[in-house]
Amino acid sequence: MSTRPTTVRRDPGYAGLTTPVETLPAAWYFDAAHYQRELSRIWYHNWLYVCRSAEIGAARSFHALSVGDQSLFVVRGEDAVVRAFHNTCRHRGAALCSAASGRFASAGIVCPYHSWRYNLRGELVQTSSRAPGDGFELRDYPLYALPVVEWNGFIFAALTPDPPPFERSFDLPLDRLDDWQLGELVVGHRLHKTIECNWKVFWENYNECLHCPGVHPRLAQLVPIFGRALLERRDDPKWQDHAEDDDPRYGGGLRAGAQSWTMDGAPVGVPFPKLSAADRKAGHLYLTSLPSVFIVAHVDYVRVVRLLPLGPERTDMSIEFLFLPETVADTGRDISGAVEFTNIVMSEDAAVCELNQRGLHALAHRAGVLMPEEYAIRQFQEWVRAELTGGAA
Ligand code: FES
Ligand SMILES: [Fe+2]
């Protein structure tokens, strides 16, 4: 009889970490100076999800977004083009929009301080002075323009003139979600939560399922592989034992009989008609754009979760539920089964994120350690480090 201990099989297909990896320093999750560094290097340098296109569907309507000490707004022009600007007047710097959203008067963008007036392209068209000083030219004082992208009904903007290429800020090719007709979807419901944790704590929790069996009993039932504390088939060091096994415990996807992330597993919205059999079987597809948003596509709805840091230890989370227009138009439809399910799962996540945040302050705790299943956290933490040092992610 062999006395060799049972060894965990390693193979190139295995996704997990094979050695312990130290986490980011604990202080990075609460230190105010470090937080400012992350705002500057990460939040002010990457694409941020602002709002759905329909929120500024009409010409002159705007939507503002604040992060750290920065504020920008997006506005739709009379030419239907969306533009983004710093929320700052070129005169002496007053904030132009005080409301989070609204519609400018037909005169354009008028500063509430001394009434400088801009058109929707951001050009200064009028000051309030009786006579401008010698050499003053309106054209020298346009609003500070920012990059903006309108993609499939989502508006993203960046607080730097040179953000990374938009497509590269996503972890999947953007056409991967084409079958969900994202551009046509409408918001059927919104949820909002403030979580008392650093924004990275949220993303780290998002990137592992080691917590799923204990924290998400309902989700662990609906997605059996999550119930095994794994995200994917190859996260199990012994995955090859079940390499061809179609059982959702090994292959992922929803439990038998379930089709969507809802209270009873039944779709609440009209199913998206173009989905492949594989996408229907998987039941969910994640698309992530760090640092501000992830999109989860189900068979009948799409969930958009946007994060914004409110401080070193506070994060704002807003969730939009997108459906086909016919789902939202049908007043007889009850979408609450999707909303309630999401609310349960996200509340469970928020609670453990807050727990995580509270413990990080221990004087003795300099850093934690990542376990094999937390390989995606390591990727995230490497991205954070690379962003902070200005390197490529
Ligand atoms: S600061 Fe805007 S008009 Fe004076
Ligand atoms: Fe979770």
The gist of it:
This protein has 393 residues and is an alpha+beta fold. 22% of the residues lie in helices and 24% in strands. It has a 5-stranded antiparallel β-sheet, with no helix packed on it. A 5-stranded antiparallel β-sheet has the order 13-17-16-15-14.
Can you tell me the overall shape? globular
Largest sheet: 5 strands, antiparallel
Strand residue percentage: 15-25%
**Main structural class:** alpha+beta
Mean of residue pLDDT values: 95
Describe the structure.
This protein has 10 helices and 18 strands. The chain has 393 residues and is an alpha+beta fold. The strands form 5 sheets. The chain has a 5-stranded antiparallel sheet with strand order 6-3-4-5-10, with no helix packed on it. Helix 2 packs across helix 9 (336-359). The mean pLDDT is 95. FE2/S2 (inorganic) cluster (FES) binds at residues 89, 91-92, 94, 111, 113-116.
Keywords:
binds fe (ii) ion, single chain, 5-stranded antiparallel beta sheet, 393 residues, binds FE2/S2 (inorganic) cluster, alpha+beta, 18 strands, globular
Topology at a glance:
Blueprint: E1 21-25, H1 32-43, E2 48-52, E3 61-67, E4 70-76, E5 82-86, E6 101-103, E7 109-110, E8 117-118, E9 124-126, E10 145-146, E11 148-151, E12 154-157, E13 186-195, H2 199-206, H3 212-215, H4 217-222, H5 224-227, H6 248-251, H7 277-282, E14 285-289, E15 293-297, E16 302-311, E17 314-323, H8 325-329, H9 336-359, E18 367-370, H10 375-388
Antiparallel strand pairs: 1-18, 2-12, 3-4, 3-6, 4-5, 5-10, 7-8, 8-9, 11-12, 13-17, 14-15, 15-16, 16-17
The structure holds FE2/S2 (inorganic) cluster and fe (ii) ion.
Fe (ii) ion (FE2) is lined by residues 205, 211, 215-216, 349.
